[in-house]
Amino acid sequence: MQRKIIKYSFSILLLLVVAYNSVYFKKLDEVKATASNGFDAAKYARNFYNNKLLPNLNRAIEIDTLIQLLKTTPEQTFKDYSHALDIGNTRYFLVKGEGNITTIGEDAITVALKNDSGKKEVKIATEFIYGNAIRDASGLMNLNDFSSIMDFNNVSEEVNKIIRKEVVPVFKSKAKEGDLVQFSGAVELNGAHLNLDSIKVVPVTVTIVK
Question: Is the pLDDT of residue 35 over 80?
């Protein structure tokens, strides 16, 4: 009887050991980064940012020029300079510009555009950098190149993560009112409800000149 109890206990112990070694936990970010079919979203995003997005920033339209065009020929300007995956009023523009910092806020830094005669101000986002603005504004990424929408969206999030971790902290730590900054990034605008008084740029690059 005792031998049966020992054998039974050993079997249970062995089962528990096997079960323990069969179960492991991963961070949610790691699961998202490696989506279906072993796709590495973080690696893809890094390659996209370094080798596609940055080299193509010269195609971005000057933001003060964009504002003037939107005031005079909004429909044509949306057609010529915006990108979006879906048919709708919300579109994304890849922009660049420079100006002097006027206000340092909790979630954005306000810049008065240098080349705008009316001293137009725009905000550079420093906190809530999420969504697909950068991915879609670039016009360089196609859904058909991905095996799933999850992979496509995970790449977008990984690009945002690069901005949040590598671009914004350096900028915020050095920014002071009056500084001249050069920036590039994405702007989201709604063609049906166009509001040029509250433009926010999701940065791709931002540099303090002086």
Answer: no
